[in-house]
């Protein structure tokens, strides 16, 4: 099962600079475990204590997984996963 994962600039040092990588798994948890076998350290930047990190947003086919099943969200062949760091701040 091939799933495309879009990688933000800040995490591309784990993917040798690649904007996207392919992985496999039936859930997001399995996908991040699979990706970590080829891109060591990537999972730790996205997952903490078995849950998605608070300041990392993950989208499945443009839908926020926090409104689906979080780390347990089911995946199918051909899905697109996007990892985005949360952005905060601004001027008053």
Automatic annotation (TrEMBL):
InterPro entries: Beta-grasp_dom_sf, Mopterin_synth/thiamin_S_b, Sulfur_Carrier/Prot_Modifier, ThiS/MoaD-like. Pfam families: ThiS. SUPFAM superfamilies: MoaD/ThiS (SSF54285). It comes from Actinacidiphila acididurans. The lineage of its organism: Bacteria, Bacillati, Actinomycetota, Actinomycetes, Kitasatosporales. This is MoaD/ThiS family protein.
């Amino acid at each position: 099962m091939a799933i495309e994962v879009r990688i933000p600039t800040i995490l591309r040092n784990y993917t040798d600079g690649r904007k996207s990588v392919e992985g496999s798994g039936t859930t997001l948890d399995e996908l991040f475990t699979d990706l970590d076998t080829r891109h060591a350290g990537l999972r730790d930047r996205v997952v903490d204590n078995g849950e998605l990190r608070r300041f990392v947003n993950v989208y499945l086919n443009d839908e926020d997984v926090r409104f689906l099943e979080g780390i347990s969200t089911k995946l199918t062949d051909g899905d697109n996963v996007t990892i985005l760091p949360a952005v905060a701040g601004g001027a008053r």
